[in-house]
Amino acid sequence: MAAVLSLRSSPSLPQCPAQVVFPPTPREDLPLGRTLALSAFAAAHGSCKAAKRAARLRRAAMWLGCLHGLAERLPQHSTVYLTGLSPDLEGEPCEVLGFDPSAKRWLLRFLHPRFENQSCQVPEQCFTFGYCVQPGAAALGGSAAPGGAAREAKRRPGLGRGLEAAEQLEQGQVIFEECPFLITADDVNEVCRAYFKMRAASGDSPGALDAFNRLSAGEHFSQEAVQRCEAQAAQVWQAATSRAASPLELRQIAEVLRRWEANRFLQGAGGAGRGRAGRYALFSWVSLLNHSCQPSAMLDSLSALQSGALPEDGKSRVKALRGLAPGEAICINYGPPELLEWDVARRREYLQRQNGFTCRCPRCLTEAKAKPQGEEKSDLVSSVAECSYT
Ligand SMILES: C[S@@+](CC[C@H](N)C(=O)[O-])C[C@H]1O[C@@H](n2cnc3c(N)ncnc32)[C@H](O)[C@@H]1O
């Protein structure tokens, strides 16, 4: 299954030199592209000096975290797919090595073994983002978020885990910041490829898979959301292999998709170019933040999306919207800013559709109690006493 999902087959094997520039143009002096290309070149030709230099540069580039193109910001080592270059290369998976600002091209390494680590330079519009696993960003457990100002709260009925202030927090304070351990395109096939990549790497580097498995598996999902994930799992399987799936295999994939849907946060809104769909991120700590229609905190990558300015370093920051006493819940608004002005029915309808759960934040429970809606009335009224986290 892993192998089938991670590779796309191509009927013919295009003959590529060690580095290809698409579309072909005369080479100028390309400092970044050239140095990063040494890595692939060295791997192909066994040059020890070049390999050492490339390794040094790659270590230095690790600090960049995110690479900037003309309009794109991509985490290093992202898996992308070529598009629009030639029929032979359509959909070919590649790893992002760097961006060459003078040539205005991305440096990519072919992932299929038949290319023997060759690299290519392509313009921004000639690939689509797939996913990126960042095992180094996965937290190793513990009960406090980075910096110690937030900690895991006691489980609450109907809500599961959450975060709370571990100390007095001031309005506007950055409570903690975190890089995602997984970023995916808004595509269930990519989510499954990323999952199988984490699984394949879990022997040497178990961090990302452990962090993924610690996330809630959509325990409070509506029946409709559960069924949607099951249908998507069947589609993913069908697209990947002609073998019939066992019920256990389908259940496992559906669970992966539920985990992703329940814990993802929008990271990139996507641009105008071909295939520039939205991107979602999973975090060890940010993904523990519950939603509230009267939020006490905000996620700056969400507000940056609205202003069009994504965080430069790839980190998302959780900021206090007001002062919080130790033990107070840290909750954010999962929806657009205007959600906070909608009435309870519209807010809950939005969260049900977009996030798969019936909102049980104190504001919704109180407003639903004052203005009962159909069949949910008795269920909600009985929950008011159980859930009070503002
Ligand atoms: C990003 S996770 C938050 C952490 C999660 N509570 C846990 O136990 O890991 C989102 C999930 O938490 C639950 N959740 C978050 N906010 C909620 C709310 N206001 N009402 C009901 N469930 C909520 C839902 O199950 C949702 O799918």
TL;DR of this structure?
33% of the residues lie in helices and 19% in strands.
Q: Tell me roughly what share of residues is in helical segments.
A: 25-40%
Overall 3D geometry? globular
**Ends apart, CA distance between termini:** 45 Å
What's the arrangement of strands in the largest beta sheet? 1-7-6-5-4-8-12-14-13
What oligomerization state is this entry in?
single chain
Please give a handful of descriptors for the protein shown.
single chain; 390 residues; alpha+beta; Beta-clip-like; 2 domains; nine-stranded mixed sheet; four-stranded mixed sheet; 11 helices; globular; disordered N terminus; binds S-adenosylmethionine; H3K4_H4K5_MeTrfase; SET domain-containing protein
Describe this structure in words.
With 390 residues, this protein is of the alpha+beta class. It has 2 domains: 2-131, no CATH class; 135-341, Beta-clip-like. The protein is built from 11 helices and 18 strands. It has helices spanning 2-6, 31-45, 48-62, 188-201, 207-214, 223-240, 247-263, 300-307, 344-355, 362-370, 376-384, and strands spanning 19-21, 66-68, 73-75, 79-82, 93-100, 105-110, 119-122, 127-133, 150-152, 163-165, 174-178, 182-185, 265-268, 279-282, 290-291, 297-299, 316-320, 329-332. The strands form 4 sheets. Strands 1-7-6-5-4-8-12-14-13 form a 9-stranded mixed beta sheet. Helix 4 (188-201) packs across helix 7 (247-263), helix 6 (223-240) crosses helix 7 (247-263) and helix 9 crosses helix 10 (362-370). The two termini are 45 Å apart. The model is unreliable at 1-17, 24-47, 56-64, 271-275 and 375-390 (pLDDT under 50). The structure holds S-adenosylmethionine (SAM). S-adenosylmethionine binds at residues 158-162, 216, 218, 220, 262-263, 287-288, 290-292, 357, 359-361. Residues 158-162, 216, 218, 220, 262-263, 287-288, 290-292, 357, 359-361 line the site of S-adenosylmethionine.
